[in-house]
TrEMBL record:
Record-annotated ChsH2 C-terminal OB-fold domain positions: 58-125
Alphabetized InterPro entries for the sequence: ChsH2_C, ChsH2_Znr, NA-bd_OB-fold, Thioester_dehydratase-like
Span of domain ChsH2 rubredoxin-like zinc ribbon: 24-53
Lineage, opening ranks: Bacteria, Bacillati, Actinomycetota, Actinomycetes, Mycobacteriales
Organism superkingdom: Bacteria
Name of the molecule in the record: Benzoylsuccinyl-CoA thiolase
Any Pfam family matching the protein: zf-ChsH2
Length: 146
């Protein structure tokens, strides 16, 4: 894998980091009914009982409760990047503490399904996904809260 000269998000606008490098997700909130959504969007409230058409960008909780999880044991097919050799990884569905949203994300390397339990506290982090043309692409992910 080529050496990275800088880091950039794999998808712009889904997460940000503060001065202490702590990550938070960026979501949207309907000012009319208070419904949250992730990934963020500018319009169309997802609440079927609301006709709001303007959503505001808001930071989301950094912590939540493990709602469900699984383990990916097979490498993705081309053109998707995968480590060589492929290493299995866990995927977590985490219910955000304040908003109640359930957000899917990869769990940090070294944590597999046998390490996880429904109801445990999880916290947001960032991790490299792949390096392309000297740019290390970063994604949000989950780790067991300390």
């Amino acid at each position: 894998m080529p050496a990275a000269t800088r880091q950039e998000p794999a998808i712009e606008g889904w997460f940000a980091t503060d001065e202490a490098s702590a990550a938070h997700l960026i979501g949207s909130k309907c000012p009319r009914c208070g419904t949250y959504v992730f990934p963020p969007r500018a319009n169309n409230c997802p609440n079927p009982a609301c006709d709001g058409d303007h959503l505001e960008s808001v930071p989301l909780s950094r912590r939540g409760t493990l709602w469900s999880y699984t383990e990916n044991r097979y490498a993705p097919p081309p053109p998707y990047p995968a480590t060589d050799p492929f290493e299995p990884f866990a995927v977590a569905a985490v219910q955000l503490a304040d908003e109640g949203l359930i957000v899917l994300g990869k769990v940090v390397d070294g944590t597999l399904a046998t390490d996880l339990r429904i109801g445990m506290e999880m916290e947001l982090t960032t991790m490299p996904l792949f390096t392309d043309d000297g740019v290390e692409r970063i994604v949000y992910g989950w780790r067991i809260a300390s």
